[in-house]
Design brief:
Layout: H1 2-11, H2 22-32, E1 37-39, H3 48-56, E2 66-70, H4 75-83, E3 88-91, H5 97-109
Parallel strand pairs: 1-2, 2-3
Amino acid sequence: MARAIKERLALEGFEVAVAADGLAGLAAADEFSPDLILLDLLMPKMDGMAMLKKLRQGGRGKKTPVIILSNLNNDQARRDSLAAGANDFMTKINASLEDIAAVTKKQLKN
């Protein structure tokens, strides 16, 4: 899924980096200072909620827009993500690549 999203966003003109787990994602966010982060909640080494909370604690990730893109399709995951500082929440099964690109553009405009 990450590869398909990367390819779709690259077609839209975005430069995309992919991290395989939460620890690598946090390190990449610190190193590259991305304009936006697409974040899964279910990741090895550090889950997405822990990564989001660490991003929001300070430093470069404090104000970076974060879109949660997860297989968790429940109201509690959505509420918890938004309360922790996510800017948007999308369920993978309901999101097409075009939807992901559109929400990415929307968040970057904000």
